[in-house]
Amino acid sequence: MNMKFFYSLFFLTIVALTHSAFAQATYFTDILGKEFKQATIVQPGDYEGSVTCTIIRKTTPEKSTKAVLYVHGFNDYFFQEEMAERFLKEGYNFYAVDLRKYGRSWLAHQKFNNVRDLSEYFADIDTTLSIIHNEGNTKVLLMGHSLGGLVVSMYADANSGKERFDAVLLNSPMFALEFKSGLKKTALPLMIKRAEKHPETLIDLGLNPLYGESLHKDFHGEWSYSLGFKPLIAPPVNFGWLRAVNIGQEKLAQGLQINKPVLVLHAAKSIDEKKWSDAMFSGDAILNVSEVARQAQNIVGQYSIQSVPGGMHDLVLSRKPVREEVYSTIFNWAKRAIK
């Protein structure tokens, strides 16, 4: 047998087996319980070694062919049970993915949130969408929060013309970085340049630590989640992360082509409290919402941008009256967007 032909045949066989494996998942009981299931997917290794992502699933009581895939943000993982239940009530099978190096997917040899290019996350989304379709879903809403919103937007652009989703929902997407006063203008270009040779150099973004307190039930919030997976104070990021996010935002500034309907939701105002007060419940403590709204206009396609009065950074974790409005907006839009 011609050896070149043999190696080509061997390679194609491996690809076929790999694709088949990606389209299947073996589920176990998730840490949330309550009929949530999780499946660990082994991905090709990277510069830190072995890599996994984790799919979390809960299906509707009655058979449905609609699904939503939720992609979390920075310093985050999927824990929003109420959000899942609302989608289930609307007839969507619920899926979430803990991206590589976050939450359920973090491995002991990895640094949390370590990334050199946001496209590294595309394989996790690809795999999950393959499984979603393989499990009988024909209509898919792709949803991203904060950093996940930027990743989802880039993914949608990269898959223009070959989409396996029918609409895109962005919850406070990280369309602009916020830094301590003056840092961005003076230091960002130098840090981006240094990231090319020294991606592991650490930097503190200076995100407001009161945001975590506004969420967690052990402090001022109403939500229960792992402070190991989502600490009150976000860990420092490295220059590689900074460069990856900056490149993503520059691509957005040049225009991202998204061929499916897009809904961008953000809080009506940003807040920057220095000490605890209930004002933390009234706005986005992480992003500059004016910049988010402005940059969202660089989406090329059918999009809608809406502000949410009283909304927090993660809009579905806002005070109950606000999040009821958020869900009403989402599902009214989805009925029109997903045919």
UniProtKB/TrEMBL annotation:
What the entry lists under InterPro entries is as follows: AB_hydrolase_fold, Hydrolase_4, MAG_DAG_Lipase
- Establish whether keyword Acetylation is in the entry: no
Query: What keywords does the record list, in alphabetical order?
Result: Hydrolase, Signal
EC number(s) per UniProt?
Answer: 3.1.1.23
| Protein origin, superkingdom | Bacteria
Segment forming the signal sequence: 1-23
- Give the molecular function GO annotations: monoacylglycerol lipase activity
Domain (Serine aminopeptidase S33): give its ranges. 64-269
One of its Pfam families is Hydrolase_4
Q: What is the name of the protein in this document? A: Monoacylglycerol lipase
Instruction: Identify the species of origin.
Output: Dyadobacter linearis
- Organism phylogeny: Bacteria, Pseudomonadati, Bacteroidota, Cytophagia, Cytophagales
